[in-house]
Amino acid sequence: MCLKLMMLRNTSLIFFGTSFLIAAPLLLPNGGWLALGALAVLGGFELVSGRFKKATRLARYLVLLPIFCAAATLLACAVQGSQTWQDEWPRLLVLLLSVLTVCALPRLYVSAANVFVAFAVTGAAVGAWALWQFAGQGVERASGQAPFHAILFGNFSLAAGVVCLAGLPWAWQQPKRWGWVMLVAAGALGGLDASLLSGTRGGWLALPLTVWMLYRAYARQWPLRLRGGISVVIAVLVIGLYALPQTGVQQRVNSAMSESLDYLNGEAHGSIGVRLELYRVTLQLIAERPWSGYRLQEYRDVLKTLNEQGRVSSGVAEHWHAHNDILNAWLRYGALGGLATLLLYVAPLWFFARRLHGGCPDRDPLALAGCLLALLFFDFGLSYAFFAYPIVLAAYWVWLVVCVAAVVNRHAHSKEPFKTSLKTTAE
Fold first, then answer.
1. Nearest residue to 62 (alpha-carbon basis) of 99, 25, 110, 106
2. Do residues 335 and 368 make contact, with C-beta atoms less than 8 angstroms apart?
3. How confident is the model at residue 359 (pLDDT cuts 50, 70, 90)?
4. How far is residue 213's CA from residue 371's CA, in Å, rounded to a whole number?
5. N or C end of the chain, less CB within 10 A?
6. 72 within 8 A of 337, measured Cβ to Cβ
7. What average pLDDT score do residues 301-309 get?
């Protein structure tokens, strides 16, 4: 009886802990810091106790990512001067805490059920919150807790929804499948709904790639009639979202096309024109200092000067980052900073892709979810500098570590959801 109570207690703690780590960045003020800090505390205990010495080779390699990012940032600080130290200490703190989170991997007994339920709860919650903002408060674009404005909130919500889509085949294989399917589907719909109501266009560009990956992983094995039926449903849904003016999709798509055509004709205005001008100016600045980079104030001063000379519009001059993660990192921290940022996408993608199609009904959906997570944030970073916000880097890293822990967890891949092994409990 005592053993069963211990197992139930441990299972509940793992469930609520995982849900907190996934949901906090989107639902709580400074939630990214809270999630990263909680995971770092656990990692710190593991490091002090010496248990991290038993960590797998994977954990030892994973810790190199934040270390490399921190090294690139420190080098830029040393070259650019004292002002950069003042600007970059939040980023350096995130990277230090990220190192500690990796030390927590040996104790993160996270299962597929923990991960997909956590993302489902998060997706459903942000979907309901976005709907309340849109319908109840009359806001034009739903957003999250500061600094999660509409773009950050919408893209993180989209990522949560897509992870739930990857988890639907897992849910279908569980006992009492319809309950699990409805829960995970609610998370998927909620995340997609929040993204839609945020009016974020950059994330939508990732949806064709997402659909293709889901098809390659699952749907190509389905009967032709079923695949055709689902394709028709998706097509009708997309057309309906575009046709209904209340969704705002048609207006956002049309404005993007109009702004792109105007830019080609020499008129840079709107979010598309401003982004393209920022890319042009940023590439010119990178060519002048490819290794050392620019201080934040230097970059803003350059944009201000160009505006005074009439070479860029005031809409361009008011921005403080390049609206592209890799370009912004290269601009601010030199070539090593750009490479370090690229590795934040490529290394997780390589890790998860190697574990696809392994034949494990729990691990395969988790590996696909991890691949999609890395690809989505790479896509998000093409049109916005997500990692210019330390709290966003913190949230992305926490989500990655949770997914990695679930994939490598040798105890948690069982047929029964939330079942904790006796060995895990005893440890």
1. 99
2. no
3. low
4. 9
5. N
6. yes
7. 93
Domain-located, residue 417 = yes
Exposure string of 380-399, with b = 16+ CB inside 10 Å and e = fewer, is bbebbbbbbbbbbbbbbbbb
Q: Are 116 and 367 in contact (CB under 8 A)?
A: no
Whole-number Å distance between alpha carbons of 296 and 301 = 9
Query: Which tokens in the block code for residue 261?
Result: 């055509």
What would the DSSP string read from start to end of 128-153?
Answer: HHHHIIIIIS--SS---STT--HHHH
297 assigned to some structural domain:
no
Task: Show the tokens assigned to 174.
Answer: 């569980």
With 70 as the cut, is the pLDDT of residue 421 above it? no
Q: Which domain holds residue 367?
A: 2-249+325-426
Residue-wise pLDDT tens digits, 396-405 = 999 999 999 9
Q: Which two tokens stand for residue 256?
A: 């993007």
**112: which residues sit within 8 A by CB, 6+ positions away?**
167, 170, 362, 363, 365, 366, 406, 412, 413, 417
